[in-house]
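Sharing a chain and its predicted structure for anyone who wants a worked example. Both blocks are below, sequence first, tokens second.
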Amino acid sequence: MTALAPSTRWRGLGGLTRSGSAVEGFSWALYDFANTIYSFAIVSFAMGPWAVRFLGETNGTFLFTLAGSASVALNAAVSPVLGAMSDRTGGRKRYLLVFTVVCIVPTALIGLVGIAIGLLFFAIANFAYQAALIYYDSLLPDVARPETRGRLSGIGVGLGYLGTIVSGLLYAFTTDADGRSTAASFLLVASLFAVFAIPIFAIVKERRPGVGARFRLRDALGSWSQLGTTIAHARERRGLLRFIVGRFFYSDPINTAIAVMSLFAINAIGFTESEARYVLIGLTVVAVLASFGWGVLVDRIGPKRTLLLVLGSWVVGLLLLGLILAKVPFLIAGAILGSGLGGVAVTDRIYLLRLSRPQETGEMFGLYGLAGKLSAVIGPLLFGGIILLLDPERTGPGAYQVAILSLLVLMIIGLAIILGVPESNEDDGEPGLPVSVYPPELVDPLETVA
């Protein structure tokens, strides 16, 4: 076996950073721990049941999904501008601080106000959470050396998984006698986010300050017009645009499941809120363990065949979830979906790299992320709209079966589209980027797949 070059050997966490500081690397990664506490505790668990408690099962489900979708839609619309603004004016940490505070403060207040204002605060917090990710991700090149970005990003993801587990366990100390969320639950989540976010602002140094220029209207318009150029570049690569379209369809059920699984577990299956929280923690553990297996499979059979197997597992899981409303089948289906969630995180970014030109990977990841965000808008709205139309308070849990099976249709469409995408573009004379050269960033399974 050929020895690794000195620059690629593991030299501890400090060996991954530009400064050689393990503390700086850990401080950057710890933000993943902090914001995942929010994404799991609020988005994936607390807010849906909280809305249902005050508004009823039908209206609560719809308005929760509407608030979440609206926040992601607004973020998708302004993301190019937000990114271009920090590139031109500099001060990524400054923008990160602003949006982190705008996420934390409304989250802390949700339980202290009426449900209408609470949903508005949730939408504001979720928009700010999504916006902060732009600046958090953009700080990675300031912290990590080029050849170690994938590994430091992976450490952040690992801490994000840990944040899911820790927040789920601590949450139990703030619930009422029936295991339901209280005002203290929202205060706890906001406080934990604030405390564990402090190191990135206190320790991490920004080394790419931008050009320090003013940001004008024409700059904003230029950042939006870049989308057309990016789509044109994607069309030049065989199968790449088809892959992006397929990703929109298969990400739709995944993002929806992340948002509504606690509601489905409570209202359709009959778990208590406390039981549902522990079920989601268990599914996160499954996703973590399965990620390693899917990663090995990618190396052995390639990203396309692995992704097809992952999407096939989601078809099976959604079918089981939609046909049988009982606790044991739900747990089996949940384990299948949790495994597949880890598989998507590992696989589809590698596939994108195989299809892209090396000099256009950043551009294509922007398009890839936009497809994920758009799917996170439409999927929850579709689910919530079906619940509103069929009204489970009147018709029973069958409404949830129809909503889940609608997601199955979207997953099958995505799977069919990916079947027609080539394994790579290596036969075009311009090979896609090897995985070892540019390791893809992983994503937390309970965050939007974007």
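Comments welcome. Residues 15-215 form a domain with the Growth Hormone; Chain: A; fold (CATH 1.20.1250.20).
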